[in-house]
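User: My instructor asked us to take a sequence, write out its structure as tokens, and then describe one feature of it. I'm not sure where to start. Here is the sequence I was given:
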Amino acid sequence: MTGTRLRPMRQDHDLEVLLRTPIHEHMGLREAEPGNPDAGLMLVCERPIANNSLMLHGGMIATSIDCAAAYAMFPTLSDDEVIMTSSLSISYMRPVPIGSEVRIRAEIVRRGRNTAFLTVTVRVGEKLIATAQIVKSIVHLDED
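Assistant: Let's start with the prediction itself. The structure tokens for your sequence are:
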């Protein structure tokens, strides 16, 4: 494979496509308020996404944070732009018991041409569960 460059493929910036990803479907991720990316995403902690302590698995929280960040970014992207997570830092503050309704909300702090910085909060009601900082790389498909 000498000389082969790996390039990301075009990305569908439609939330429904994002939420139909098998892992996101399995998690039960959905829009908090249909058509309003600022409201973020929701999920209910159920046994299939819980850990052995019957609390929401930390990896599921991380996945939901990354998905919410993509959801927040989609309205800012052109058809020739693809986003990829460059870094993700999460602070977990408290556990989420089975049956809890969780809201995941991302906010774009700064969006440049090639990089975006986001913060994400995870809450059950008013209780803060986790916070995250995400850096998304923005790849321009029409450039070499």
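For the description part of your assignment, you could build on this observation: Residues 112 and 138 are 9 Å apart (CA to CA). Try explaining in your own words what that tells you about the chain.
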